[in-house]
Specification:
It catalyses: XMP + L-glutamine + ATP + H2O = GMP + L-glutamate + AMP + diphosphate + 2 H(+). The chain is an alpha/beta fold and 321 residues long. About 4% of the residues have low confidence. It binds xanthosine-5'-monophosphate. The site of xanthosine-5'-monophosphate has 15 residues, from helix 7.
Amino acid sequence: QWTTASIVDEQVGAVREQIGDGRAICGLSGGVDSAVAAALVQRAIGDRLTCVFVDHGLLRAGERAQVERDFVAATGVNLVTVDARERFLDALAGVSDPEEKRKIIGREFIRVFEGAERDLKAQGDYRFLVQGTLYPDIVESGGGTGASTIKSHHNVGGLPEDLRFELVEPLRLLFKDEVRRVGLELGLPETIVHRQPFPGPGLGIRIIGEVTAGRLETLRAADAIAREELTAAGLDRDIWQCPVVLLADVRSVGVQGDGRTYGHPVVLRPVSSEDAMTADWTRLPYDVLERISTRITNEVAEVNRVVLDVTSKPPGTIEWE
Ligand code: XMP
């Protein structure tokens, strides 16, 4: 029967067959998908897998430490962290268009991996690249069913022509809920398996407008507060994810103490979903919304307004870009 254990067995077998006695690199994004893909390939080929974690500077607060500490503790994988923060900021300078941002981030990702691969060549021939691509990613990028492209998810649409890796995509037939079950079956802890999804392009597609170091810092602070309060309220398992979006090109007038402010709004985008193909906006309790709003406007100097996105998907996508 089509049990989680049989999915794992089948995919472990398929990965062993595809990779043979070769070596593979897996880019960890900090999300569930790449973590489960990596754990599955680790199960199949052991220490012939090396994970590469790119700190592209578009991460949320604490995410790098979580990968370096929790994921390594759970799996024992070889992990290389590459600090590419400046490189991504340089590449994104002056760019506001969402699709252009996604393409740049996808392209830089591959280039950084290729750099990491060259460094690893001394230890053996790394020919395979593991990716945590899911079925919905393929469908929405137009790769699966001939559907038109909605967004070029960077791990499907943005690969350069001269890609020198053969792709290993052990989750490509699965939906998110199946991926979580596979992760548990592989012995990953709940904190990793039930981590909410986070897009590969990260905070880069949650800043509406140009991405700068200062704007990233602002969004990271607001996002950390929203996540803290949602966790404290015990709501993590009730919502699919809650993007916090910085409207960096919008300003509005506010007042704080005696002073007039002219700051930016952030948008809370809490959604409920089964597989991200469709979603409803989550009816968060008013007292939780109030705490998030009060804390963000008190603690993040550049933000003077918090607004709530009450759009389902469709017509809105989950991310704003
Ligand atoms: P949308 O915005 O298309 O998002 O409704 C659906 C789900 O996919 C995530 N997402 C991405 N994940 N690379 C990813 O790995 C991407 O480029 C990307 N864009 C969106 C999003 O967070 C949501 O869970």
